[in-house]
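Recall that a protein's primary structure is simply its ordered list of amino acids. Everything else, from secondary elements to tertiary packing, is in principle encoded there. The following example makes that idea concrete.
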Amino acid sequence: MGIKSLLPGPLGFGTAPLGNMFRSIPDEEATATVEAAWNQGIRYFDTAPFYGAGLSELRLGEVLADRPRDEYVLSTKVGRVILDELEDPADRDLGEKGGLFEHGRANKMVDLYTADATLRSIEDSLERLRTDRLDIVWVHDVAQDFHGDDWLAVYETARTGAFRVLQNLRDEGVIKAWGLGVNRVEPIELTLDLDEPKPDAFLLAGRYTLLDHNRSLQRLLPAATAQDIDMVVGGPYSSGILAGGRHFEYQKAPADIIAKVERIKELAAAHGVSIKAAALQFALAHPATAAVVPGATRPSRIAEDVAALKESVPAAFWTALRDERLIAADAPTPTA
């Protein structure tokens, strides 16, 4: 199990912003950003029907359709089916993520984790992405942030539906890997305890970052490492606050988070380190991490991400973060 041998490198491109997350993005800007990622050598692209009600998949597929399919790795997600029926995107119930894609397409989205819905979702994604195959499929958002107190019932539907379908597709060679794509650690911890079905990896967004990693270090990451199950870290910039933005957890950042980020920036500046380098290299330092998939909507941001991975970060910087308890004492950090 694991996907490190499948992925072309440690840096992927997370395309949630291409679904008009937070703002309406012109088609030309979205296209230029995907092309910049390709030109910078990125060959792993992650998307989902949820991102703008299919908009991210459509935009990504438009660019990648002209690229050789064997030269890149593609992942998308199941759990939501996009209908032809229209609705007001601003009125969608997205749990804790209200208004996240209010600028996306108006097609109605429904949460469906059954076996039949999983197969339908994959077929629809293939059409939007203009491709004949997917490499990795994640079961999307079977967690508290979207389903509240009902999340365990939703998880159980996915376990008996989506999980088994994806395992069968992997065993048949239709896809190469599957797992969960979530913003919470609990559904991953539950899945790690299952005898079957067994995933290959997980995409965990926002829970292994400079700002939020203690819970993942306690049980999830040790268990994943012991089972040879890889982690892809989504949201390494914590919704943007670690990359010059104003959002944390997809909402306006609170005062305590802003203060913490400012202190990290001060220490980074004192050691000649960019905040992006600190964020990406921290997430990649854990042995369970196979890749990071930051998002972007501007071409220049891609070059910054690539440069951040190559940047030299002195050990004294990580020591300073530990000394001020800005990162956990047991969090792995890069070695020279």
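The mean pLDDT is 95. The longest strand covers residues 80-86.
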